[in-house]
Amino acid sequence: MDACDGRVYQDRKPCNRYACHFLTVEFVLSALTLQERRVAWLMTSVQFVSVLSFMVIMPLGPDYAPALGIDTARVGWVMAAYTLSSALVGLFAAMVLDRFDRRPALGICMIGLVLCNVAAAFAFDLWSLLLARAVAGLFGGPAGALSVAIVADNVPPERRGKAMGMVMGSLSISAVLGVPLALELSHLFGWRVPFLTVAGMGLIIIIVALRLLGPQRSHMGGTPVPLSQAPRHLMRIAYGMLPALAFALSFIAIVPSFMLISNMAVFVQFNLAFPREQLGMLYMIGGALSFFGMRVTGALVDRYGSTPVTTGAALGLAILIWLLYYDWHWAALPIVTLVPGFMVFNSARMVAQSAAVSKVPAAEDRAGFMALVQSVTQVAGGLASLIAAAMLSTGPAGELLHMEDVALVALVITLMAPPLIWALERRVPRDAGISHRVRAVMKGTSGG
């Protein structure tokens, strides 16, 4: 590929020999194909179960903590158990995932996740719940990396923002449908029922996904790296300024979210006196707005790039953190506006950053690289939850003390994202946004 090819898509200034084919290329880039859309929706469904399995523990804190005798300020431990175990297994998964067909690997991970949700439903104290969640992390981390890798394998970079917006939208779908349903089931039947429900949904979705998803071996064209050399290969794909920026950006993306979201339900209920019976509505509104916001974000990333979108989302998120945790009375905004707004800007930031990070690895290294990214994010989430739990204490009425200090740390870290993503995008090769499919169209229409 020469410099002219890069300018067709990056700067929209085609060389003369491609001018007559510009409309053809624009048509190719206009929307996801039917097959790409199918893969994106299947992986969105898989991610829905994976994300919900992880997310369901957060808003249920006020319900299971008293039942199991857990201090509400230590709810973050349960999240940390999942994220840290997921991070550890991610290092191993990064060395082996690219050696296999992604389809059966995904099936194994999801079945393990389903069984772990059943185990969590039968937890009888803090330690049994921690064990169930830790084992769930061993399956959930690789499952997330595989689903993102499958989308990246099947959707070219110039349309990947839309596809990533769909897949990352599973976070919002979980908030719109899963979390409110879990809260209502817990309110009516007890906190154990949501875990059993997630397990049942996961079993159905993975059966359907495996039936409709074809073999995923496009990354296996070359000779696989011998397992004895896998650690060295892993160091190779993780070495350099570009991977380092991707890992730093992934770390920065997660820390503010986990420091605040892991304690969000407890904070709004006990500190802000938000009614317990309306928590489901709060998450539903936030999830619904985030779902559509993610779709818009994906299109904006495809059009303008990740840097301006991340910058806008980070600034909006910082403002909402300040209002929610410091001065929401001054703004006279209701909680039902601030919390959903927080979710919208947080999810938009994650879509933009995920699209940028997905351009870093080569296709044959993608699952391994994304598993490393997953490990980084899980370490970030685990550390964020533990740090927040260490900073917090519980007041006499169950309220969280020192939450404003946690929010200040999250706000400062949030504002570190724009310069990082700017540094990453300016180092991504200019032809990283052009897929082999578009090159084929250009070659065919030019008679080459």
UniProtKB/TrEMBL annotation:
<keyword id="KW-1133">Transmembrane helix</keyword>
<dbReference type="InterPro" id="IPR036259">
    <property type="entry name" value="MFS_trans_sf"/>
</dbReference>
<keyword id="KW-0472">Membrane</keyword>
<dbReference type="Pfam" id="PF07690">
    <property type="entry name" value="MFS_1"/>
</dbReference>
<feature type="transmembrane region" description="Helical">
    <location>
        <begin position="406"/>
        <end position="424"/>
    </location>
</feature>
<feature type="transmembrane region" description="Helical">
    <location>
        <begin position="163"/>
        <end position="183"/>
    </location>
</feature>
<dbReference type="InterPro" id="IPR001958">
    <property type="entry name" value="Tet-R_TetA/multi-R_MdtG-like"/>
</dbReference>
<feature type="transmembrane region" description="Helical">
    <location>
        <begin position="104"/>
        <end position="124"/>
    </location>
</feature>
<feature type="transmembrane region" description="Helical">
    <location>
        <begin position="308"/>
        <end position="325"/>
    </location>
</feature>
<feature type="transmembrane region" description="Helical">
    <location>
        <begin position="369"/>
        <end position="394"/>
    </location>
</feature>
<dbReference type="InterPro" id="IPR020846">
    <property type="entry name" value="MFS_dom"/>
</dbReference>
<dbReference type="GO" id="GO:0005886">
    <property type="term" value="C:plasma membrane"/>
</dbReference>
<keyword id="KW-0812">Transmembrane</keyword>
<feature type="transmembrane region" description="Helical">
    <location>
        <begin position="331"/>
        <end position="348"/>
    </location>
</feature>
<feature type="transmembrane region" description="Helical">
    <location>
        <begin position="234"/>
        <end position="261"/>
    </location>
</feature>
<feature type="transmembrane region" description="Helical">
    <location>
        <begin position="77"/>
        <end position="97"/>
    </location>
</feature>
<feature type="transmembrane region" description="Helical">
    <location>
        <begin position="189"/>
        <end position="213"/>
    </location>
</feature>
<feature type="domain" description="Major facilitator superfamily (MFS) profile">
    <location>
        <begin position="39"/>
        <end position="422"/>
    </location>
</feature>
<dbReference type="InterPro" id="IPR011701">
    <property type="entry name" value="MFS"/>
</dbReference>
<dbReference type="InterPro" id="IPR050189">
    <property type="entry name" value="MFS_Efflux_Transporters"/>
</dbReference>
<dbReference type="GO" id="GO:0022857">
    <property type="term" value="F:transmembrane transporter activity"/>
</dbReference>
<feature type="transmembrane region" description="Helical">
    <location>
        <begin position="130"/>
        <end position="151"/>
    </location>
</feature>
<protein>
    <recommendedName>
        <fullName>Major facilitator superfamily (MFS) profile domain-containing protein</fullName>
    </recommendedName>
</protein>
<feature type="transmembrane region" description="Helical">
    <location>
        <begin position="281"/>
        <end position="301"/>
    </location>
</feature>
<keyword id="KW-1003">Cell membrane</keyword>
<feature type="transmembrane region" description="Helical">
    <location>
        <begin position="39"/>
        <end position="57"/>
    </location>
</feature>
